[in-house]
Amino acid sequence: MDPGELRVALFSGNYNYVRDGANQALNKLVRHLLDQGINVRVYSPTTDTPAFVPEGDLVSVPALPVPGGRGEYKVALGLPKAPRADLEAFAPNLVHVSAPEFLGHAAVAWAGRQGIPTLASLHTRFETYPRYYGLQFIEPWLIRRLTRFYNKVDRVMVPGQSVADLIASWGVTTPIGIWSRGVDHARFNPARRDDAWRRNLGIPDGVPAIGFLGRLVLEKGLDIFAEVARELARRNVPHRILVIGEGPARDWFAGQVPDAIFTGFQAGEDLARAVAGMDVFFNPSVTETFGNVTSEAMASAVPVVAARATGAIDLVQEGVTGFLVPPREITAYADAIERLARDPVMRASFGAAGHASMQAHVWPRINQAVLEAYLELVRER
User: What is the rounded distance in angstroms from the CA atom of residue 58 to the CA atom of residue 46?
Assistant: First the structure.
């Protein structure tokens, strides 16, 4: 099949109304597909105040706010009449679903009735979320539901081998491919560091900035980060906590780390400067499938201390670009951060190695893997 004959319907639970790593990857993919002459149409809930301008044609799907204090996110309850009619008029020959929610299920069911191949990309470890809200008892049930969903599609694309191994261990038998993530190297690089900016924030020269980067939500491991910060303070480790991001748990987190510097949401060149301004990036999250923030920190020559979990174990080379720590091991996290905080030579070495390791992560080559998977599925059908 000629690539120009492809007609891809992409379904997302959040294509552009709240900025996150998943929809940044999806928009990068759509831009790549459009540049290759592929017909793409995106179906997603929308808002009147999107976080950014979407790539491609976006069809709004009616949705309701997610309950439980997370109303910034929306959930579509299926594929209603208007978007379904648009989908049928578009007549795709491949359906790509990016989230295992009601809209994704409806899209897979519709494609099955039409005899159209389906591909699912996995962006988030949803099965880990309940533990942060006192609902960990539903995780086994949720894993069974996710396994059934991914076994209904023709191909699953995951960001790295650790996630491929994880879902295979659940019982996913659908062929699995790797769709990694790229880095904007013109933006994220060590030259973006600005010591004057750090001083203006109250970070003295020579004092390591231990950074958090991401949305301020509980599932990013904010509780662990706060406990480790208290342990570093107890040990009198020289440091300042630098928090880059915004989110619904900000007030709670600020109460846990009262001496931290909060930059708020950062974007573009300001974000690049903030990331390069860290001396250690600390990511205790176990919900990542890749960790765009980790790759951006490494590209900026910042050493990493992260949970030994999916995502990080595909990126961080132990003792070379950073340290991987068993999740929730407060003492071990503090030990790793203290080593880096007290050793500028080690920080420089790890940072340089991380920067070098990220040079192969470029978006066009990485997104081409998805296009090749599309073509293979359509040819097989």
Answer: 9
